[in-house]
Design goal:
Length: about 290
């Protein structure tokens, strides 16, 4: 296609979720914007993912299938896709989530290269029981938000996916394969550190599955280790308030103990909600 319709790459890591993967891929194939390549990487799947993807690749020339023979982690799978991506732009999709049919169209229309990346709001819904009514979705962008690195270091207010220039994601070497958790958050921090602020549109065009019966790829027993590594890795970028907030969040996650006096000294007005939750955890009223 011409420069008016640049190629967009969509990467999807997957592990033993062939049925959900098909749902995710179908939501990309249903996009109103058509110049898209889909890169799927199976992270050591032992179900029928290979057979499912063979059928997709035979029918759709814009789908590429990659695989790790043994599980190596979602970040390795993502990076395999990113390294092979040929699109001018790139975005990700988890194998248990779906796109609104106009997602790529809307992201392209709102992208501005002066920002490191673009992100959006999302619906959180149990897709196993309630498929979204696309026709009733409100796609009006009634607000734009600009996310600085300073803001991002307090909390991940970007989310789990971004839309950016492929060369930028490659320039930061994609996802850190050594992060046991918080991989998305770490990647966005590095992206903003190198390329500037992010732009967020208040359009819900991503549907995140919150089926509690399944464990998402991004959830593991290494959550605290990922949190701890994140704060150690980016400590030099942080101000005192961000460092205090990190200590509170590590306590909430459960990897550290903390006295009431210590918790009191970590009071931070900017991240009041985390501090309150920490007190609730301290007294056994939350987890």
């Amino acid at each position: 296609m011409s420069n008016h319709f640049p190629l967009v790459s969509v990467y999807i890591p997957t592990h033993n979720r062939s049925a959900l993967l098909s749902r995710a891929i179908d939501s990309v194939l249903a996009q109103t914007y058509k110049n898209i390549e889909v890169l799927v990487c199976s992270d050591g799947s032992s179900d029928d993912t290979d057979e499912v993807m063979q059928a997709y690749c035979q029918e759709y020339p814009n789908i590429t299938f990659l695989k790790n023979d043994t599980p190596q982690g979602a970040c390795v799978a993502r990076n395999k896709c990113i390294n092979l991506a040929a699109g001018k732009y790139i975005t990700g999709l988890d194998d248990d989530d779906i796109f609104h049919p106009r997602r790529i169209e809307l992201l392209l229309a709102n992208f501005d290269e002066k920002f490191a990346c673009l992100c959006s709001q999302q619906y959180e819904v149990d897709l196993s029981t309630a498929m979204p009514n696309y026709l009733s979705a409100d796609l009006t962008n009634d607000k734009e938000e600009y996310i600085s690195l300073e803001s991002l270091l307090y909390e991940n207010n970007i989310g789990n996916q971004v839309f950016t220039l492929t060369e930028r994601l490659k320039a930061i070497n994609g996802f850190d394969e050594g992060m046991p958790a918080w991989q998305d958050y770490d990647t966005w921090v590095r992206l903003l550190e190198k390329f500037g602020d992010a732009k967020k549109i208040h359009i819900k065009c991503y549907y995140a599955d919150i089926d509690r019966k399944r464990i998402r790829i991004s959830i593991s027993s290494n959550r605290f280790k990922g949190c701890q590594r994140f704060y150690n890795k980016h400590h030099s970028l942080m101000n005192l308030g961000q460092i205090k907030n990190g200590q509170v969040r590590m306590f909430i996650i459960g990897g550290t103990s903390m006295s009431g006096f210590k918790l009191f000294t970590l009071f931070n007005t900017k991240m009041f909600k985390f501090w309150i939750k920490a007190w609730l955890v301290k007294f056994g009223l939350a987890q």
